[in-house]
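A reminder before we start the practical. When you read a complex entry, don't treat the lines as separate problems. The point of joint prediction is that each chain is placed relative to the others, so the output describes one connected object in space. Small molecules and nucleic acid strands, if listed, are placed in the same frame. In the example below there are two entries. Take a minute to note the order of the lines before looking further.
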Amino acid sequence: MDPLIQTIGFGLVTSAIISLGAVGFTLQFSVSHVFNFAYGAVMTASAYFAYMVNVTFGLNIWLAVAAGALFGAVLTMGLQGGIFQPFLARRADTFTLLIASIGAALVLVSAISAIAGFGAHSFNVNFQVALHVWKFLWTPRELVIMGLAVVSMLALHATLRYTRVGKAMRAVADDADLAGNSGVDARTITLVAWGISGLLCGLAGVILALDVVSFSSNVGQSLLLVTIAAAVVGGIGEPYGAILGALVVGLSSELFGYWVSPGLKDVAAFVLLIVMLVTRPYGLRSGERLRTEAQSL
Amino acid sequence: MSSALQYLVITLLVYFGANLIAGWALNLQYGVTGVLNFGFIVFQAVGAYVAAVVTLGHSEGGYQQYILGANLPWPLPLLLGAAAGGALAFAVGLFALRPAQRDYQALALIVVSITATTVISAQTGIFNGTSGLAAIPQPMAGVLGLGLLGYGWFYVGLTAVVVAVVFFFVHRMTRSPWARSLRATRDQPAAAAAVGIDVHRHHMAVFVVGGAIAGLSGALLVQFIGSWAPAGWESQETALYFAAIIIGGRANNAGVALGVAVVWTGFVESVHYLPTFGVVGGLSDALPAMSIGLLILGFLWFRPQGLIPERRRRVATYRRRKPPLESLQGETLDVAAGQ
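Here is the predicted structure of the whole assembly.
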């Protein structure tokens, strides 16, 4: 068994989790231009909700995954309707939105710790026999994670590409006022986009908790910046870019961990994020359209 | 007062002083200038680290390893701490302040903060890893020969002196023409640039000045506590300083003092000494963070200017006398009306 191949295998699993989170994050940014720091807290909350369904109520893990994702969607729509939309309607500046999202994150994370305590939890699942797929060695748990990510990405692609809602969402992301003038109900579409983003966020939270095996109340926040790194590498606001970003970030952090030190895995993602922010803030695939859009903010 | 209570008061006062200095530093950056320094705590931590190693004496390896070992007398550790904070701010500012969007700057800075914690925790040679430094000597403790409480009150006095000196500088800075440019870059960056203010340079300057003051506050704190570890300076603490400024009042030094008293003394530190009321799970542990989160949201929505709002500044001297220009304008208006 080649350890390098194995590392790449881990990297693909990590990328799958990050891609769900990053696509969700970037979707929120594309319609509302909000850097939502409460995103990690929503991931955590969804993981705990799934845990409750799976362990407390003793239901099937698949049901728990679905319930966690739905919970993420509901919570995200609540945040959008209750906090971000009102501030955006007031035309609040970037700082206010950023800091409001941090306030919301504090409330959410402390609410989770208040209810569930600070201890570690694990799901009640049992599929640990490793499987060989070509040269890679994956546990069924990891295969499920990657499968879920691929299916979600395809579903999102189909939604954005072939449905009216998806078309409207792309229109709102391009220019909300113009979309509104053309008869798109921009507020509803924004809320729907946040809902979809929440679904991805919740799913990312649950499969992250599944992947790390034993999780606690900082599980989502710990992945938040890596997620943002992927979104920024792919060009913030670009769903397809975020998938590419997730692959770059996921693989490079696992490889960095393998070659340098496992404790410094995240540092690769962070350095990548800073380099991107400083040199190419509009992402690897930065086009002229994005640049002008960001300048008009 | 019983001695336990006295010691509690001493601790709260010293912490309040150090946090107040730090609050003013962040207020210069965020309140006055609008630089979202989400990595603020790092500059405080580096000041604390340098102040610690220049008083700990030469490192003999073994259980704690560090660099720059020396035995410098007070107040040199404070000054070196400030210098370290400023130097690090300069180095970080060189790249982190480069993106034009301030949310990108904020993101870069929070990443710097988290990376610093990760790297320092893993790095035993320079920073002694997660265990950090201990037995940092307190300034003049040997010479004075005071008891625990006596020395505590002495340190409160020392803190008060440092706070007064910092206030003098910060107060003058926020009233200076320089601060007027800073406020202009905060409110109207494009207009400020158009009238010839170099926005990036001003932000860089305030970033370094704020970093130095942050380093000073860290140094002041570490000499009282006597220990330093990366876990004590994590990025969440930065959020508390932001909360203090938002609640107390942006760009108002008195407001920041009130905010620091409410957030740090009221919620963060006093809670350590309250008996735990274990209602459900970790409620009593989670309650301070939850209250601060709710306060941030409440203030942003209902009172974004904070408890003590920023003073409205106007150029008063011109208004007293009726300028000749105004009568002239009146005439032209009359002419226009007559036509």
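Discuss with your neighbour: The interface with chain B takes residues 35, 83, 86-87, 92, 94-96, 98-100, 102-111, 113-118, 225, 228-229, 232, 261, 263-264, 266-267, 270-271, 273-274, 277-278, 281, 294, 297 of chain A (CB under 8 Å). What might explain this?
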